[in-house]
């Protein structure tokens, strides 16, 4: 597209806003003075007023013959809407015309123009809103290159650490600056072949409380986004996912689109859980952990549900105290299920019997459990019941779809019961115990057993923890 230069008359008017300032030692006497679009602020989007800052502000000035230098703000005037920039002596760019970018970090070492994959939160705003100018002089006015997506959030006792947006277009990485039909500068995205280029994250530092309605702003190139997935992550590791797919989001340069979500519209999922709810008693539901418990000096969850994890004696952590103690070794409100709770999941909840079956996931045998509310992913099948490990078979990729829909897999990780080692069965501790034994779940190819108190003091079994749903 055709590039245009700002009119000299407009630049002369902007130049009248310049004020003289004393140069610091070592700085060039060559300076550039910049105002922002509409002469108000560098994010003049529907009333936002984040202005020039004396510290940390810099622009990249580019001239002909690959000349380039970073210029730093040395003074701000006019209620911080006008800034004067200087570079280190000997680095001046001397050309007949200039291309100027803000922030300077947008220009990479090899001269390409890139948007960051991570943006930085500012109170009621966002830092480093991208701007551009073409000028033949040293006084000019910037043009905003992007539009703004504003997400307003409110939820008691939640502190937001980051917000990510995933779209169907490139929102980070290399871009070109072009001219719109209306004559304004804007970003022109290259084809995004890498999915990572379709996600941008707003970093909120130590966290931002949303006890009251709070603004979070993310800048995006202009365009129509048919895919728009939002993930809000809290400082405790819980997260909330929202999808606007089916409702195209249009971002216009120098304008703001606002979405408000508060109260019950925000459900935060605990960290390290499978996002599916399982009833364990009337009115009580739980999430399962993302995998079995393991220990390499400290306790953690294995990365995938089909990984075995560790096998433990019920006395291995805290003598003869309750098996729930395993949950105290993982951050969060974790515990093991009781015999009655396992019975409820298997057969007493609505359609419980139709939501359990054996199968093979990524070559590993085990038990598959479906959540209370369930939608089978397109193109996949599920067969309830028991007969053979081949009753349900999923590749790792297929299981990823099942897991996203809330399915839980308990691998037949083997175990040692009463001195006998069984390598192709699954054994999982329950929380019920007595002086000489404890309850456990046994998974076989053709059946499952919910065993009450048994004399298995020295047995080694797997541990799978749950966390109660708090109704948020």
How would you portray this structure in words?
With 472 residues, the protein is mainly β. The protein is 6% helix and 41% strand. It has three helices and 37 strands. The strands form ten sheets. An eight-stranded mixed sheet has the order 10-1-4-3-2-5-9-11. The protein has a six-stranded mixed sheet with strand order 8-7-16-13-19-20, with no helix packed on it. It is elongated. The relative contact order is 0.10. The N terminus is likely disordered.
Strands in their spatial order, largest beta sheet: 10-1-4-3-2-5-9-11
Give the fraction of residues assigned to helices: under 10%
Assembly state here?
Answer: single chain
What ranges have pLDDT less than 50 throughout 5 or more consecutive residues?
1-24, 316-322
N→C terminal distance: 50 Å
* Portion in beta strands: 35-45%
Shape: elongated
What is the gist of this entry?
With 472 residues, the protein is mainly β.
Features:
mainly beta, eight-stranded mixed beta sheet, 3 helices, 37 strands, disordered N terminus
Give the topology.
Blueprint: H1 8-15, E1 27-35, E2 58-62, E3 68-77, E4 82-88, E5 98-102, E6 113-115, E7 118-122, E8 125-126, E9 131-135, E10 139-141, E11 143-144, E12 147-154, E13 159-167, E14 173-179, E15 185-189, E16 199-209, E17 214-220, E18 223-225, E19 228-234, E20 239-243, E21 249-251, E22 256-262, E23 278-281, E24 284-288, E25 293-295, E26 299-301, E27 334-335, H2 339-348, E28 356-361, E29 364-369, E30 393-394, H3 396-404, E31 408-411, E32 415-417, E33 420-422, E34 426-434, E35 437-443, E36 448-454, E37 466-468
């Amino acid at each position: 597209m055709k590039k245009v230069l700002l009119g000299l008359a407009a630049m002369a008017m902007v130049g009248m806003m310049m004020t003289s300032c004393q140069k610091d030692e070592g700085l060039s006497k060559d300076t550039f003075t910049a105002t922002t679009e509409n002469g108000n602020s560098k994010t003049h989007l529907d009333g936002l007023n984040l202005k020039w800052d004396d510290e940390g502000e810099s622009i990249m000035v580019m001239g002909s013959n690959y000349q380039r230098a970073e210029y730093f703000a040395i003074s701000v005037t006019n209620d911080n809407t006008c800034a004067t920039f200087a570079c280190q002596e000997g680095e001046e760019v001397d050309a007949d015309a200039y291309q100027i970018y803000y922030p300077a970090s947008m220009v990479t070492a090899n001269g390409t123009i890139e948007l960051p994959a991570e943006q930085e939160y500012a109170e009621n705003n966002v830092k480093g809103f991208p701007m551009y100018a073409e000028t033949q002089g040293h006084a000019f006015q910037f043009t905003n290159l992007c539009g703004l997506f504003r997400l307003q959030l409110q939820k008691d006792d939640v502190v937001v650490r980051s917000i990510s947006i995933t779209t169907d277009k490139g929102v980070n990485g290399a871009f070109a600056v072009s001219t719109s039909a209306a004559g304004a500068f804007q970003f022109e995205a290259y084809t995004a072949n890498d999915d990572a280029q379709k996600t941008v994250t707003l970093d909120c530092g130590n966290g931002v409380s949303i006890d009251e309605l709070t603004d979070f702003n993310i800048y995006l190139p202009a365009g129509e986004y048919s895919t728009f997935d939002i993930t809000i992550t809290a400082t405790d590791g819980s997260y909330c996912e929202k999808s606007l797919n089916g409702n195209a989001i249009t971002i216009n340069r120098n304008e703001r689109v606002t979405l408000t979500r508060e109260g019950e519209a925000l459900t935060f999922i605990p960290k390290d859980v499978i996002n599916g709810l399982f009833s364990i008693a009337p009115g009580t539901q739980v999430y399962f952990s993302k995998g079995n418990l393991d220990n390499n000096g400290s306790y953690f969850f294995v990365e995938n549900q089909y990984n075995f994890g560790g096998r433990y004696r019920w006395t291995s952590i805290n003598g003869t105290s309750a098996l729930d103690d395993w949950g105290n070794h993982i951050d969060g409100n974790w515990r093991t299920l009781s015999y009655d709770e396992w019975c409820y999941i298997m057969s007493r909840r609505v359609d419980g019997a139709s939501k359990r079956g054996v199968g093979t996931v990524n070559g590993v045998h085990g038990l598959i459990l479906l959540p209370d509310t369930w939608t089978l992913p397109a193109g996949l099948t599920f067969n309830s019941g028991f007969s053979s490990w081949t009753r349900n078979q999923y590749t790792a990729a297929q299981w990823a779809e099942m897991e996203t829909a809330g399915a839980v897999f308990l691998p037949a990780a083997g175990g040692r019961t009463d001195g006998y080692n069984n390598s192709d069965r699954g054994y999982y501790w329950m929380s019920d115990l007595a002086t000489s034994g404890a309850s456990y779940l046994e998974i076989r190819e053709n059946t499952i057993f919910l065993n009450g108190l048994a004399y298995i003091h020295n047995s080694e079994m797997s541990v799978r923890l749950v966390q109660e749903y708090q109704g948020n």
